[in-house]
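Notebook entry, structure prediction.
Reason for the run: the old model in the group folder had no record of what sequence produced it. Starting over properly, with the input documented here first.
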Amino acid sequence: MNEYVSNNTCVACAPGTTNAALDDASGSDTTCDVTYCAVNEFVSNHVCVACAPGTTNAAGDDASGSNTTCDCRIRSRLDLDIHLDDYFSNTITDHICSDISTWDVSNVTDYSELFLDRADFNANISNWNTSSVTDL
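New structure, fully documented this time:
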């Protein structure tokens, strides 16, 4: 399994591609098929991996190509809370969405008590689009 026929020899498929078993090496050359990621998966080292909670990705990333990422657009207060919990509990390089200043929070309407008990918070969020906020 995961081999194709090239010049009457079985050869391993390239990373991010697959082929069903039982190709006949005495016959014509065959090929491997590209693996495409499902909804809410991304490519990491030619493997489809589930997106982290609070992130999304459309289906169709090509696992035989470059690494991809999940979308960090924040669609609700719950998403924002998930991201902030992650932000405060991980090192800067381990965040679900790396740079807090680039988070798209334009759909969040409720910011009430968002940074309560976060006196140590000092990140630059001046680029956040807060035009939808109705509750501070």
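Summary: The chain has a mean pLDDT of 87.
The old model has been moved to the deprecated folder.
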